[in-house]
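Quick start: what a row looks like.
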Amino acid sequence: EMNAQIAPALRRERLRYLLLTVVCLALLGGALYFQYVRHEDPCPLCILARYALVLIAIFGLAGAVSRGWAGIQFARVLAALSAIGGMAASGYLIYVQANPLVSCGYDVVEAFVDALPTSRLLPQVFQVQGMCQTMYPPILGLTLPMWSLAAFVVIFLSLALHRPRRAISLR
């Protein structure tokens, strides 16, 4: 029967999305480590990158519990769009830090980010604490926003380039 061939492929795919969720939560944990252990305060763009991670984790979980390919495809598109958002926030932060005269739109972005309900529910994670222009010591030669951009690019490419093998074609 056809389902017997689809099931292992679907199971593999669901595990991939579970892994995606775990990776995003680990990256979020890393962000909190830098905030609370290394005292590197998150700026508005950092917080937007955190939201992107949370969204990818949520859509990853949706893919992981999906009962069929349509759900996985839906999760994939939304996670990829969220990764693009993370790339935009991280990329713009790199640009702002490279050009100190450029504002990150602090007043506008900060007001927007801190007005979100999650900022009040979980201020420890989602409240703006720092300025975009503040430069912290690089890690292995790259700033945290550069590592963040790299992570979002890898996540996006893994979603965009992966073609699940759904079933063996029966000729």
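That is the whole record. The mean pLDDT is 87. The first helix runs from residue 2 to 36.
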